[in-house]
Design goal:
Shape: elongated
Order of helices and strands: HHHHHEEHEEHEEHEEHEHEHH
Strand content: 15-25%
Radius of gyration: 38 Å
Number of strands: 10
Helix content: 40-55%
């Protein structure tokens, strides 16, 4: 018969069995004996239904109490065995850090490798190196370099805008070119200056073998008295020959850019380089950058008198330039993190 003394006997038996248990299997057997579907406690709930009200009120709470007690004790015992198993596993898996292993040093990404080399080249030619913020105002990115508000580049389908706003209430944007730093640096280094601005730029592009949403660009600016297009072409030919590590012939094709006048696209002669010749689709000339003489309005906006000073500006996609130099047909290889590709250069 179900009585308080019966429950006390269960407790004593349970404690004796649990103290003797030496692994998880024996604990599980105790659990089934007392709390399983055919266990002692489970069967007692059926017997409880046959008691009178007074018996139910007295025995019912005791049954619940002993059930909870058994469950908590079983869980604690199981946790002890699990902890012991983890500790044993850790002891077996200990690493001897005193053993000397080969040192694997980091490997330069090809873009960073070429960028570091370009820093040396530009420094040799008297250019200072500057960077800037990835975010910019519409004035910095567009209006300061003579791009009007009506220009298609200012539209959301071309430019990535942010939720943050400037003091005029206009949304900030991710810079679409490093030209966004041009006026600020000209004012800082005014009036004669010679600098380059490398950095990431962002476009609302469909990613493919020749386009990316984020890519590296480099902008160069030189302002002097009596600077001419002839000076510019001489400098550009020398710089590109250094970058491609071979003597190059270049040609300037008239083009249109809002921030330069006159403006040009620059091609390099690759007829004597089989790799570049194939990359040019056997045309013999390969476009590498845009450039021109800085527009008088841009100079005025930076506080420079265009009657006394003239200058040139050039810009190129560093990602694309590296791809051209090494004959890489898919620019995504330069940024996808594949170590097999990275370590091949």
């Amino acid at each position: 018969m179900l009585t308080t003394s019966t429950i006390e006997q269960w407790k004593a038996e349970f404690t004796e069995k649990l103290n003797a248990a030496n692994n998880e299997v024996s604990v599980e057997e105790i659990k089934q004996y007392f709390l399983g579907k055919a266990g002692i406690v489970t069967a007692s709930y059926k017997e409880l239904a046959s008691l009178d009200i007074e018996g139910k009120q007295m025995i019912g709470p005791l049954l619940t109490e002993v059930k909870n007690f058994f469950e908590s004790q079983l869980n604690e015992k199981l946790q002890i065995f699990k902890n012991q198993e983890i500790e044993a596993s850790l002891r077996d898996d200990l690493v001897d850090y005193s053993v000397e292993l080969p040192l694997h040093e980091g490997h330069h990404n090809l873009i960073q490798k070429e960028l570091a080399r370009m820093y040396d080249i530009f420094a040799k030619y008297g250019f200072s190196i500057h960077d800037g913020n990835d975010s910019a105002t519409k004035h910095q990115n567009f209006y300061s370099v003579n791009i009007p508000p009506s220009h298609p580049a200012t539209e959301i389908h071309d430019t990535i805008y942010l939720k943050q706003q400037d003091e005029t209430g206009e949304n900030l944007l991710l810079r679409t070119h490093t030209s966004s730093m041009q006026q600020e640096l000209i004012r800082k280094l005014w009036p004669e200056c010679r600098f380059v601005v490398p950095g990431k730029v962002y476009r609302w592009e469909n990613m493919d073998a020749t386009h990316d949403v984020a890519f590296w660009q480099l902008e160069g600016v030189c302002i002097r008295k009596n600077m001419s297009l002839a000076h510019f072409k001489h400098d550009l030919k020398a710089l590109l020959s250094e970058i491609f590590e071979t003597e190059l012939d270049i040609r300037l094709r008239p083009w249109y850019f809002p921030f330069t006048e006159p403006s040009y696209e620059v091609d390099i002669d690759c007829r004597n380089d089989p790799k570049l010749f194939e990359l040019s689709k056997r045309r013999g000339w390969l476009e590498v950058l845009g450039c021109g003489m800085i527009h008088p309005e841009v100079l005025k906006g930076a506080g420079v008198d265009p009657e006394q000073y003239t200058g040139y500006a050039f810009w190129f996609g560093l990602t694309r330039m590296v791809a051209i130099k090494y004959g890489i047909k898919d620019v995504r290889l330069l940024t996808n993190g594949d170590l097999r590709f990275v370590q091949s250069f």
